[in-house]
Automatic annotation (TrEMBL), chains A, B:
It catalyses: Release of a C-terminal amino acid with broad specificity, except for -Pro. Transmembrane segments: none annotated. InterPro entries: Peptidase_M32_Taq. This is Metal-dependent carboxypeptidase. It comes from Falsibacillus albus. Gene3D superfamilies: 1.10.1370.30. The active site is at 268 (proton donor/acceptor). One of its GO terms (molecular function) is zinc ion binding.
Length: 503, 503
């Protein structure tokens, strides 16, 4: 029931609007730093970002916020639905942040910022011992956090809950075991296949300007609105939603491998469609963003894999790609191209992994994090454990820690519990695809025609528009009628690789 | 004498640093809106800018600020020099802003924001009556402000003081009369000259990308540091200093008239050199910007006219311009080109005026503003008075108000007292040039060699580094040994146009 708004409710919404304003300004400064801000201004800009971040943080744990929570929580049923959910979100943040002693938290922020630069050096030098003391402290602090916040069943659940509320160790253990039992034999079969794709055509010189032209065309076809966004170049690509009318995509051009830009842009474009299509009524509240890392990743991976690596999509777009290129595909039939972009083979680096082996990279990290947090693994044993797991899951072994345990930035920033979101997003995406096929049975035909509008409309109706109004598993349940289910992804992978490798 | 900093002094500096942080974030959002922010996000972005502006404004008139001013003013001699000047600046702002009843001020802000869109329509339709009621209210409010703030000698002095502290009606009346008495006969002589420059070569097709290439090269030669800045495209060019390590230039490319971009970039580059070379110790204080509109304009006009329209400069750069162009200067000797870019003839639009007639455009506005504020002119008579003055000063008459009294945006935003800065900047620039010649007698030779470093160094030593540590007339006095003096500009104009028009 929606009632007339009281002054208290209005004041609360003004208050959160101001926090959103700080975050929007911070977002723009972040984007700017990564797309061409002059380097001599960066240090001072970082201070500005720091000050605005403190403002937003202080507002989230202020006495004023405490008073809003106390006064409004008693009369929730009288509140507008958006206010209710906003209040919940603010309360969760308040409770979480208030429980950490502020001096400890500040110390931790300093630790992480140091740790990141040490990690960079350690990675370059492939020297785990350099990073070890920092990682030990970070793990220690995360355990402390769990002490402050409490936990249910498994300590690691508390960290998972930050990124993917509702998802637990129990759930993950089950789906990951299931995934692994299907993926590992499939990887094996592929390794033994005698009819592998030829991939030489991928690595010819593809001029940057032409890659950009193609990337822009594909974003447009996806339904990305250029009146509400723009495409820029960066070193580590990302998409960022400042508000639904300003959602920016960044990409990277590798003239020796067009896939970096093309699949990267489609991936970030998927994230961007999510942010562009959040309901306008959520602007200025903390609900005006994706509901979780996993659901966000479901959108990027859906477009990257179920659209961008689909043969029908290339039936529509291969000629355009050919015309943008310098002739590298002239003697390559569509089917050969399609097989090439879907090559699968075990590799050491997560971010370069293919669709099939990617979840195995995530499982390695998941098991290590779970073990660390539950005192079953020690930081000093990580290099050995990492290498053993890579051998066990992927059949290959890093020759040094730079391409092994030191490859990801996440742990140096204290992000424990984040990695599983990548794999969850993939499973969610497959579940959405499965459901979508019931409602849009001519899915492939639409791709062939280049008509991606109904696909975007389905995602907007079932996912985008809600922002954080629904928790991730509610989005999934309401959209597909089921909870987390690895079977759809497994089915997809089996079918796809059977075709690509003629198994 | 500089003493050890007290905690109070440190807290005060932290406080102003935060205000600077808001302003830096606002500056970036402003730049972004004018260089490619997606249009659908603008409305929400404007709200964010509004909120951060309120924050900065509220901090400037807060009780906390009042307390700092009260506590620190008593012990100024114990403060660091930067703190002293910062305190003065904060006190001036506090006094000015506190005297305006806040409800009246808010009403005025709304009025101006409406007035600007009405002005746009009025200009397009050339319909002064549409804009008249708004302008009347704005003038009325400015008179009210003078009532709150008080005045010395002449009411208009109070407004002048906002933009150019120390400059008064008495001073301006004198220098403008002097300028006019010399410029008007010179314009007359030029009109009668039988040897006018041929300007057809200016208006050939010059590809945008090539204009950009040339603009970048010239900025570099000027000593603009691209590690502390960047060049972008916009509709109404500007330069903006976010901090000395991030000072951005924008320009506009007209493929039918390369002068827009080339002289526009040099002009904005002059502003940018100022902001890039402010002393690092002023970062995070309100002193970290140009000291006044006039001194800022002295820098842009110095580079635009005394560098960019100097023959020696083109001896060095004409070949590069030729090589960037599509051949439009192939049969044009350097001297003919030099004369063409220095053509002078009376025109109706201020921003398109040449060096010689430009000050006359300013005088028209100055006299009208002075008359309005002193109740000697009524808003309803402006179109008639405007046209009469153009006829009297420039010998031409607008055929409609769109190209007459409605041409500038300034009044719709309430900026009365701003226009004189343009002419002051021009006089300051000529005074700097004159003094510089004593210390750098081989000025022209340096331009011929393309060695602009000593010129920039002179400006940094005498102007740039001080930021707002000195008032404009102190900058002038310390650099040149004299007060405002129109003679140097007059001498320059006489000599230059004698040469260009072979008088």
């Amino acid at each position: 029931m929606t009632a007339v708004m009281t002054d208290l409710e209005k004041d609360f919404l003004e208050y959160v609007k101001k926090m959103s304003a700080y975050n929007e300004a911070i977002g723009l400064m972040y984007w700017d730093m990564r797309t061409g801000a002059p380097k001599n201004g960066i240090e001072q800009r970082s201070e500005v970002i720091g000050m605005l971040s403190s403002d937003a943080f202080n507002m989230s744990v202020s006495e004023e916020m405490a008073a809003y929570i106390a006064k409004l929580s008693g009369k929730k049923e009288a509140l507008n639905e958006v206010t209710q959910k906003t209040l919940n979100e603010c309360k969760e943040n308040y409770d979480r942040n208030k429980k950490i002693p502020s001096d400890e938290y500040k110390e931790y922020i300093v630790l992480c910022s140091k740790a990141e630069s040490v990690w960079e050096q350690a990675k370059t030098e492939s020297n785990f011992e350099l990073f070890r003391p920092y990682l030990e402290k970070i793990v220690q602090f995360n355990k402390k956090l769990i002490g402050y916040w409490g936990y249910k069943e498994n300590k690691y659940n508390t960290l998972l809950d930050i990124y993917e509320p509702g998802v637990t160790v129990e759930i993950l253990d089950e789906v990951f075991a299931q995934l692994r039992s299907e993926i590992v034999p499939l990887v094996q079969k592929i390794a033994e296949s005698s009819d592998k794709p030829r991939t030489e055509c991928l690595f010819k010189h593809f001029p940057k300007e032409k890659q950009k032209e193609f990337s822009l065309a594909i974003l447009k076809k996806m339904g990305y609105d250029f009146n509400s966004g723009r495409l820029d170049e960066t070193v580590h690509p990302f998409a960022i939603g400042l508000n639904p009318g300003d959602v920016r995509v960044t990409t990277k051009y590798d003239e020796k491998d067009f896939r970096t830009a093309v699949f990267g842009t489609i991936h970030e474009g998927g994230h961007a469609l999510y942010e562009q299509n959040i309901s306008e009524e959520l602007v200025g509240t903390p609900l005006c963003t994706g509901t979780s890392m996993g659901i966000h990743e479901s959108q990027s991976l859906f477009y990257e894999n179920f659209v961008g690596r689909n043969k029908s999509f290339w039936q529509e777009n291969y000629d355009l790609l050919k015309s943008c290129s310098d002739g590298q595909f002239d003697d390559v039939p569509l089917n050969e191209f399609y097989r090439a972009i879907n090559e699968s083979k075990p590799s050491l680096i997560r971010i370069e992994a293919d669709e099939l082996t990617y979840p195995l990279h995530i499982m390695v990290r998941y098991e290590i994090e779970k073990g660390l947090i539950n005192d079953e693994i020690e930081v000093r044993d990580l290099p050995r454990i990492w290498n053993e797991k890579y051998e066990q899951y992927l059949g290959i072994k890093p020759s040094n820690d730079g391409e092994g345990v030191l490859q990801d930035v996440h742990w140096s920033g204290g992000s424990f519990g984040y990695f599983p979101s990548y794999a969850l997003g993939y499973m969610y995406a497959a579940q959405f695809k499965n459901k979508m096929l019931e409602e849009i049975p001519n899915y492939d035909e639409l791709l062939e025609k280049g008509d991606l509008e109904p696909i975007k409309a389905w995602m907007t109706k079932n996912v985008h528009r809600f922002g954080k109004m629904k928790k991730p598993l509610n989005i999934l349940q309401d959209a597909t009628g089921e909870g987390l289910n690895a079977n759809h992804l497994i089915e997809y992978l089996k079918e796809k690789y059977k075709e690509v490798y003629k198994l």
